[in-house]
Amino acid sequence: MQKKLILLPLLLMITGASIADDHEEPVTTMKAEGVDELRAEYNFCTLNKGKTFKDVEKFSQKYGDFANQNGLKYNQSMLTPIHAGDSMGTFTHVIVGHWPNGLEMYKEWGTYVNVFQEKYPNLKAPHSCGPNLATFQHKVVSAMDATVEADVKRPVQYADCSLNEGKTLDDAKVAERAAAELIASAGMKGYGVNYIIPYLGQRDPDYDFISLSYFQTFMARAEMAYNYYKVADKANAITSEVYSCVNPRSFVVKNLYTNWDNS
What we know:
Elements: H1 10-13, E1 37-47, H2 53-69, E2 75-83, E3 93-99, H3 102-119, E4 127-129, E5 133-143, E6 153-163, H4 169-185, E7 191-200, E8 209-215, H5 218-227, H6 232-240, E9 243-257
Antiparallel strand pairs: 1-3, 1-4, 1-5, 2-3, 2-9, 5-7, 6-8, 6-9, 7-8
Helix pairs in contact: 4-6
């Protein structure tokens, strides 16, 4: 997809919370960002009549090439639903963009609106996209398998999570990593976990964070599904002391272009 001035509401795919019409921001603490704190944007989109996902990929690549030529650290991917229930509404897909930090986010946006749009004012998109939302993403677990090549299309899962009373996001990260050690001890790998935190465009969500689990391959997801029972009781006991999650839903993700290493 060409980058749009309207992003996605996490409303439908990654939450059921209400979305602001403007850029109203929930209360957050401005602080220095670490290497584990990414920025991400989401766009819920619907294919225009007669258009296909191949058209979306071609359209997206034009801006991907421009971003690369201008040294912009912006990656883009596309999500399509697997088991998402009615969370997608009438939308057909989701366009997701990532930056390594806030500096690169606003640098890229500035170049897009001041340079790219001026250079290509008449581009016609193959899809129509909805309201906007930006997030922080905390990289919590990375258990990738260096011996395995990633599938072109890979599975990802989202769930809305709430902290138990008195617990913090840092507590959740500690619990998540402790559970990951158990998972590794049972021979499972090829996955990662990020925590998504609302940033711009959302009013008072009814969760504390969104858990994003992503897998290198469908086989890695299959191995997790088949073998998780071996550590399920212990892992769930650890995480349930800190947080609980609802509304799990799954999607296929495909990279559209990659202009910085987000592994």
